[in-house]
Structure formats: structure tokens, C-alpha cells
Fold these 4 entries.
Entry 1:
Amino acid sequence: MNLPKGAGRALAFALLVALVGAAFTLAEPRFLTQASLAGIARHMAANGLAALGLTFVVIVRKFDLSIGGVAAFSAMSMGAVIAAGMPLWVAVLVGIALGAALGAISGIAISRFGFPDIVTTIAVGSVCAGLAFLYTGGRSIFENFFQSGITDLNDARVLGLGVSLWFLLIAYGLAWLVMHRTRTGHAFYATGENPRAAHFSGIATSRFVALAYILCAIATVLAVLLILAESGNAETNKGANLMMPAYAGVFLGAAIMGGTSVLSTFAGILLITMLLDGFSLMGVPYYYSDGVVSLILLMGVIAFSDSARGWASSLRVLFPLRNPSSNSRERQV
């Protein structure tokens, strides 16, 4: 029976998720409890939003290492607005505006002026991390948090599911429609696959590279918003742990599903969040779980990189697989 294209990878991923879930359940029976699954959903929402933004950057074949710094600065900025007694929607708009501005700085520097993406985003992230201390000198901000209603994003439920999970599903649904059902999405992919050909086809490639960084920064801000809703305060380390799961989710999903896409990122971040929460529930120290995620990230990069595929192809050329039927015919001759 011939499976539809991609169905085999989807079935393999479903089997992998089932095996990971079964392993954690055997090791820690609380893994499949309602409280544990709710925690996975909350953490997946924050990690998933950061990974979704990063997906746009990876699709245009770039990297963004400013996620941690942007997260810290936007968290403290939104916290300062909330502490000043402003409505929650004002704080969210301020965070989104800051994220868009920071993403535009990185995107324009890289796409218009040809700055290297890794160096540029490290610099932007470092500046943002320093600016996060601007409001309180590094002290926590918690004034007016409970009165603002931000914690409802973490506690409220709709149709049995948390608001944060609905937020994630809606964001991924909209992103999927844009990337796979519009000319804008095709332009993103064309920019990453062959920027020169895309340019001569009439696509403003520099504009789409800049837009990818803007979307990544905005998604980071939204991810931090969910983290603030869960913790009930703003600190300079909020969002510091977003970058590693985001990269692991994007590249692991690409390796499993055969390419970078919105759905592959969703699959990768689901698996990564299950691993992180499972290790946490078992009491595994964070440095061990971070090491596992880093190893998974490395494996995903190796599996997804063009050089690794070229190396594998060269091995097949050097050591071709012989057809058993041809071997039998040779023996008969």
C-alpha cells in the first residue's frame, strides 16, 4: 500500500511520541496525570511561540541568537508598564512594538547592509540583555500583576483547554495558512532556497529576510507574555531558556518531517517539551536535561544540514548497496 507523501514521517513521529510518553509514564506514573499534561501544554505554548518565530528565520536560511536578550528586555518592559498601572493591552502593545523594532534592527542590518547574522544577533541580544536592567537594576517587578489580569492567560480555560494552548494553536494555524496557502509564504521559501533566483523573479528578498526577524522577535515577546502570566512577575532572566528549546524544536522537527515548516516545528516542539517536562517531573537536574536537548539539537542540525546529506550521499557512492537479485543472477552465470 502506497502511503500519501509525508504520511510515513507523520506515522513515525506519532510512534516516537507514543514511545516517549510510555517511557516517561513507566518511569514516573504522574506523567500522564491531568496536572502534568496541563503543565506540558503551558510550557509548549511558550516554547512553541518562540520556535514558530524562529521558523521564519530558518526558512530564509538565517540564524537569530538574540532571542534570550529580546525576551529579557521585553519582559521587563511589559512588567514596568503593568507596574505603572497601565492596562494589560497597553503593556502587550508596548512589548510587541519593542519586539518589532528590535527585529527590524537585526533584519535591516543583515538584509540591507550585509552584516553577518550570527554576529549581529548576538550583539543585539547582548544589548537587550543589558537594557533589561534599566527599569529596576535587576530586581523583580510584581506590582499590579494580579490586578492587571495577566495571570488569566495562564489560569483561564476554554472548552477544557488553557487559553495559552488556544493561543498557540491559533498562531500556528494562521502561520500555516500564510506559509502554505499564500504567495507571501512561497516568497519566504523562495528567498531561503535561492535568493538570487527569487530576486530576479521579482521577490524583494531583503524585505522578507527583515520581516522574518521582525516576526521572530514578536513571537518571542508573545512567548514571554505567557511566561509572565505563569510566574506572576517580571525578572531579567525571563525567557532566558527559550532559545535552546526553540532551536531544538525547529531542527528536530525538520529532521523528522523532512524539511522546515510550521507543522514540522509544531511536531518538534511537542517532543522537546515532553522531554523537558518529563525530566523535570522525574527530578533530573536541569543541566542533564539541557544536555539532552543540546544533543538532540546537534543531531537535528547534522541530519538537516546540506553538508551532512552530501556526506551521506558520498558514502552511498563509495559503498553502493548491491541488488540481491543481481547477485543471484551473477551466481547463476
Note: The two ends are 35 Å apart (CA to CA).
Entry 2:
Amino acid sequence: MVDFDLRSANTRLRANNPLIQCITNTVVQQFSANVLLAIGAAPAMLDHDADAAQFTRIASGLLVNFGTATNQQFLAADAAIDAANEDSKPWVLDPVSIGAVDFRTTRIRRAANSSPTAIRGNASEIAALAGMGLGGRGVDSTDEVDAVIPAAAALARSTGAIVAVSGPRDAIVAHIDGADRVVRLDGGHSYMPLVIGTGCSLGAVTAAYLVGATTASARFEAVVAAHAHFKVAGEAAAEGVRGPGSFSVNFLDVLHTVTGEELARIQVEAGTVAAGTVAAGAVGADAVGADAVDGAQS
């Protein structure tokens, strides 16, 4: 079992002030930049194919999100991913809208086969990327998180990435020491899906937390810490707000003030994904039975 020290992960993030290169969709660029600043990181939205790779060698980590991709961004991502891998820098893939249209799906699969450190998406996106679902409705998920944990485990094994599935209850899956390990986190708020950029910016935050994590267990912990940061902030930001608009402002404020001590207090349920629960094309409400995931509270 992996022991988590989310307080130390947050301390490392603040100390590093990592510079995160975001090749991301135009709808969320400003929000993602503000989120990175709020947590103690630095954003850079360099996505031109002529200089993306050069900047990746300067940056601390990389996010790739093809939400509104152009040919220029596809070429920039190819070059940046190669540079990140050559320099052993963490990079995160957000497979937004995979399965919606063919070309985007092909390019996302190509990126997934290029050794991402982490993959973060909603349940439908993760199922589709694992080849066990058709994808969601645009950026929305039509699947439940627990139902796609076997797909996430299969994806973690095939890509070597830590796979995070976002929803009302997040699940983070990693293949470590021959076992498929899963962590679930509660928290957040129902306003979060109503604010454009919360999911996409979480990919950037995940990249920031991964900087300086040099072992498989440390990287797993870093991805859990990034999601815990969002869960804590989302829950606290909803206090006293009138709706999604005021929530989005409050969310940035709370992201900035979340402490390592608060992360250390979040409820973390850790366990393993039982063998034999993955069947291609069979991910659905009954794909995870009562014995599919063995867990423990910590």
C-alpha cells in the first residue's frame, strides 16, 4: 500500500514555484493561468510549433489538452512531448472530447502512446481512451467514475501513466509494484462542472504537483495531492456564494489559501483493483462488482 503525505506534496509545490507550459484550449487559457498562479505555480501558454519544444526545455512541466486544437497546436504538442520525454519532465494529457470526432480521437491516442506521466479526464473520456467506451457528450461525461475504474487500470498498465478520473468522487489509478492501486477522494461541489475550465485547469495543477516527484509512488502521491487541492477548494468556495459566477471567483481565492494541513485532513480511500475485472467493451454499471476494488480508509 502507498502511504500519502499530501502536506509534503503541497510544500514541494510551493517551494518549486513550477513553470507549467500549457498547450490547451482557447476557452480555458486565462482561467487555467489564474488557477496556476493561485496555487503557487507559474503559467505559460506557449503553443506555437516553432518554439514549443524550446520552451518545454525551459519549463518545469507540460499540459497537453486538445479541446480547441489547431494544426499548429497538434504540431506544437508533438514537439513539446518529445522534448519533455527527452528531458524527463512530467507532462499531463487531458483527453478532452475523445470519441466525439475521428481526427481528434486519433491525435489523442497518439499522445497517449507517447509516455504521459499522467492522464486526467472524466469517466467517459477515460473509458474511450482505454478502448472500452465511446466517449462523452462533448466535454461532459455520461459514465460513472466507479464503473470505469477497470478501464483506468487497463490504461495505466498500457501507458505507464497515472490515470485520474474526475467526478463527484475522483478516482486515481496507478500500476505500481505489479498491482493496480486506486485512490478515491470525496469533496468539491456541484457548481464545479458549471464553471468552464475547472476540469482543464486541474490538468495544469496536476502537472505542477508532479514537478519534483521522482519515483512512481511520489508521482502517484502528487496526482492525489492535486485532486485533493481541488476537492478542498471546491467545497470551501461554495460557502456563501449565490451561483456558479460567484463560485468561480471564490474558487480562485480559496485555491490560493489552501494549506498542506488541509490536504492532510482530507478523507482518502486507498485500495487495489482486483484482477479479472477488466473486459474490453464491457465497461458499464456492472463492470465493477462488490469485490472489484478492495479499499481502506486513511
Note: The chain has eleven helices and ten strands.
Entry 3:
Amino acid sequence: MTDEPYDVLIVGGGPAGLSAALNLGRALMRVLLVDADRPRNAATLVSHGFLTRDGVPPHELRRIAREELAGYSNVEVRTRQRVFGIDETDAGFSASLGRRSPEETVTARAVLLASGLRETLPDVPNLRGFYGVSLFSCVACDAWDLRGRRLALIGESADLAARARLISRWTDALTVFTHGSDAIAPDEEAELLAQGIAVERAPITELRGEKGVITGIRLEGGAEHAIDGGFVQPCWDAELGYLQGLAPDADEAGHLVVDRSGRTSRAGVYAAGDIASPGPQQLMVAAGAGARVAAVIVHDAVGITTTH
């Protein structure tokens, strides 16, 4: 066990965790950031909507951020490591971490949870072969580059119709594929059809294309649709198993419940980014949340009340 506690343990090295580490480091906090190095956007070739970095690959954003953090001797970044459990102690918190199994225990006065979400894609043949190249999940990030084209929306979730209406802002040639599910109710289908959005309910049997560029979708029964790209609606859930020792409150969707300042229901435990109650899942938004929560942690450490 490391005897000297860190001021803050950050779990997760995405934009929220990295942004928080930078701001906490500049506030003279002793910080340990632990990152499993398995980002949810690993399949994405380029990221969009991040001011001054529009079109930069996500892995390049992380590389630049880690390079900047290396200039702060009070910030330690450990990659390809996991946090297996966190427990509360009299002095703060203890966390077990390692690569494939717990190898070390560290202590910290506060914990920032920024481990993001895990996504599950619809069970469509060869979907992974196109995901991140011509099929995407973030409309705000990627719809601009697909504007005016023949697009598909593939999903099985209850918000599929709402997502279709959003995507129709960028194209007037959109087809929704429910892959045999009842994700779209009959009244929703009627509304979509009235807006010029087609709905196909048959299961998908094949995605056609080469080198990640999709050109068509074949359905059970033989029907085919020519498309130029599109979107997938995954199911997202937060991996909270390592928090059993803390058990902070979570909502029905599994996101951690936080106040406007990023505090969870457990004193000294904060959350930022996609693991917290959802907002737009964009890199820029997550980075801003990390910076904001970092300021709150500093204020709390010196006894200044922050409510907004």
C-alpha cells in the first residue's frame, strides 16, 4: 500500500478525466489518473465538434492531453490499468488497482469517476465492420459529413423514432431499420412516414460494402436498400461493479446521479462525463464537465461552498 494519499483519484482517462486532471494539477493537487485504455470511441477514425481539434482522431486527442499532463510532476497517469474496487476509509478512500487483477492499493482524499459508458450494438451481421467508418452513433458528431445522402438508422431502442426525426434534419432520404424489433410503435411509424422517413421492420440479414464503406442493406425476404451511410443506436450502460463498496445513487438508466456541481450521493465522490446523468455525448461536453468538477473539488477541499 502507498502510504501517502493522493488528493484525488481519477478513474477513467477520456476527455472528462484528462480535463479534470489538468485543472486539478494546476491547482496544486496531487492526482492519480487510472485508465484501462479501452475507449468507447476506439472505432472512430476522426472526432468532430471539439474546438481547435475538429477532425482530429480521438487517440490523437488523448495523446496530446497525456503529453500536456506529463509537464505536471504532481499528476500521475497510469494506463492499461483498472480499478477493481473502491472503499471508504477514515482518511478518505482506498482503491485496489492493477492490470488483470488487483496488484496494489492506493489511498485518496477524493475520487472522481469518469469511466464513461459501455455500449452494446444491435446484433446485426458484420455491423462492426462498418462502425466508425460509415456507420456512427453520434448524430451531432457525424451527421454533417453525411448530409444530403441516403442514410440508414439501425436500432432497437425505445427512442428510435426521436433519433430518426433528429437525423432527418441532415437528409430527406432516411430509412429506419428496426431489425425485427418493435422499437417503433404504429403511431410513431405513421408520424415518420408523414415526414418522409421510411420504416423497415424486417430483420437485417446482410450489410453490403467494402473497406468499411457501406453501400446497401439486405433484409430477410430479399428486399434491398441502397444507402450511403448512416447511424446505429446502441444501448449504453455504465460499468459500476467496481463501486459496490461505495454504492453511489444511480438513476433507472444506470447513470450516476450528481448535483449541478458533479457531486454524487457519497461525500468526497464526484462524477463527470458520460457516466453521470446523461447529456450530449460529445468530447467537448465531457471535457467541460471534467474542468467544472475539478473546480468544485478544489473549492470543497478548502471549504468554499459551490452550488453551481
Note: The mean pLDDT is 92.
Entry 4:
Amino acid sequence: MRVHHLDAGGTRPFGGGLFDGRPGIRRRAAGACHCLLIEHSAGLVLVDTGYGEQALVRPDAWVGRRLIRQSHPVLDRPIAQQVEALGFSRDDVRDIVVTHLDLDHAGGLADFPRATVHVHRAELDTVEGPFGRREEFRYRPAQFEHGPHWSVYEESDSHAQRWFDFQAVRQLRGLPPEILMIPLAGHTRGHVGVAVDTGNGWLLHAGDAYTYHGQMRAKPSMPLGTRAFQWYVDTRRQSRIENQQRLRELVRDHGDAVTVFSSHCATEFERLSS
């Protein structure tokens, strides 16, 4: 199994080090939208899809003028084009596992209309149910108009087992047993991580369960702007706090066997993609 680390383009808010922890604040922050492309014997699997090609065609409907104005997202790195640049067809992507359905993670689903989309039940229920005010800014109905082929999971499934100290949903239908869905609610109601056994150790794509690499240290730290943003977008704050602590314990106790990373930390992406 081969894993490619792809950057679908993160946000670039003004304030620099207030968000990315690097020197200087009179600049745009460095960000990423960390996705995975996994090659296995039966095809390709994506973990998250970024903003997608339609973000360039109709940005107001696909992303929203408010987010574009405030966060300056990078929209010109569609995952579908990166898949093709690696020599594949987008139709080779048979499955997509989404950490959650926020607009910057699910926007590319429409670029792979034949793929099966693996999602947590609570996440899909939120998207399909009436939106609350807190959901209006994060879920974009236009991104789901093509009618994704959903494959839905929840912790009560009979095949749910343990993975280290986490509840794991295995096996994902039609996928190799080396790819697991790890419930990590907090950022959204149905947020998950995705664990991949590469044969040389585990990768855990933790999505937006945390935001900055310093949060995984024994004494966690994060820049002020990132802290405020994380607080603002929390859906289930206590669950997020508890899951972050469990992730820190995973890094502390099993860091030699598991590499943990998040969606938007440019430092983590640069380290893993080099």
C-alpha cells in the first residue's frame, strides 16, 4: 500500500504567526489542507477532498464570499487534478473516506461522482437535517447536489472494534482492513480520524480534531489566533478536549508506531510530504 500526501490548499488569514506559530505577523499565515491518496490492489482511496474544482468556477456558492474575504483560501489546487498529475484517472478513485463534511473537506466530492463516500452517521445526519446557525457557515448544500454514494457507519456497528485506546469502525465496506475509521467527535458531531497501516507503521489522519502541531506535545501550546478559531468552530467542545488528550496519550505512548497529523498544520504537511 502506497500513500501520497497531497495539499488541497488551506486558508491564508492575515496575521501570520498568530495562526501558524512562525515568525512575523504582518503576513498571510501558512496553512494546508492535508489529504491522502492511498494506492491499494483494487484502486485508489482518498481521505478528504479539499475545496474541489467548482470552487474556482462558482466560489460564492461553493465556498462563500465571507470565508473567502476573511480567510483567503487557496482554491487553485484541486485534488482531482493532483490525482491526474500522478498518472491516474479520477475514475480510479473508487472510495473516499471523509473526516467530516465541512466545505474545505467535502468540496471535491463532486469531482469523483462514481466514488463511494464513507462517512459517520452523525455527520451525514447533520448535513441532511435542518441546519442550525452554527452549521450554516461550514456546510455548503451545493457541494452535495450531485448525490454522493454514501456508505454510513456508527460506533454501534457490529464490526466496531478497538484500535489502541480508541473505538474503531472496521472494516470499511469494500476497503482493505488496513484502513480504519476512528471516531473523534468534537469539531463536528460526526468527525472521525482515518488510520492507515502502511506496513511500516500507522498513519492517523486526525482531520480537524486538532489544528496545530504543538497541541500534541506533553505541554500543549498553540498560537492565539488558532486557539480562538478552534474555540469558535467547536460543536462538542468537551468531546474535542477529551479526544485531544487521548491523541496526546497516543503520541506519548505509541509515537514509535503511529504518526499522527491534522488537516491544516503546514508544519506537519511539510514534514510528511518531503
Note: Residues 237-254 form the longest helix (18 residues).
